[in-house]
Amino acid sequence: MTPLILVMGVSGAGKSTVGQAIAAALGLPFADADDFHPEANIAKMSRGEALNDDDRWPWLAAIGAHLAAHRGRGCVVTCSALKHVYRDALREAAPDLRLVFLTGDPALVAARQAARQNHFMPPSLVASQFATLEPPAPEEAAITLDVGATPETLATAAINALQEARTS
């Protein structure tokens, strides 16, 4: 089975960079969750307003549809997937979804977010992301990686853990 991989974590954790590296190494298509946001969500975040569940559900449904369309072929998708119920919705669309959870020191993540250029998500929203975050529970079998490592190290660790899980 070709894997469906969700690289998750707060904004600024490095999801896109690590996700692209995983996809390239595994020869899988890559999709960034930012590309699934409706314009209203982007405008709201650009104004420094945090999204609420009503804003997120259509976005998550679009990501779930993308994952479902790639079942059997595999893909790597990034998505903050901050709450357990969001991940449940994505797993409903793609039951074989594997999670790679990028986590780390909030100060490091905030510094990375502040250094980003030309992104609609302002650094002021990082604290709201951490406040909303529900780390994956043990039954979600997430591969948890600390973002203090380099993106290359994170991608390699994720791939090794995915391959190990497939053979055990």
Please write out the topology.
Blueprint: E1 4-8, H1 15-26, E2 30-32, H2 39-46, H3 53-69, E3 75-78, H4 84-93, E4 97-103, H5 106-115, H6 126-132, E5 143-146, H7 151-167
Parallel strand pairs: 1-3, 1-4, 2-3, 4-5
Helix pairs in contact: 1-7, 3-4
Summarize the structure.
This protein is α/β, with parallel strands linked by helices. The protein has helices at about 15-25, 40-45, 55-70, 85-95, 105-115, 125-130, 150-165; strands at about 5-10, 30, 75-80, 95-105, 145.
What is the SS-derived class?
Answer: alpha/beta
| Radius of gyration of CA atoms, rounded to a whole number | 15 Å
| Main sheet record | 5 strands, parallel
Separation of the first and last Cα atoms: 14 Å
Please write the string of helix (H) and strand (E) elements: EHEHHEHEHHEH
Total number of helical segments? 7
Mean pLDDT: 89
Which outline best applies? Answer: globular
Q: Beta-strand percentage?
A: 5-15%
Uncertain ranges: none
Query: Quick one: how many beta strands?
Result: 5
The helix content is: 40-55%
Strand order, main sheet: write it out.
2-3-1-4-5
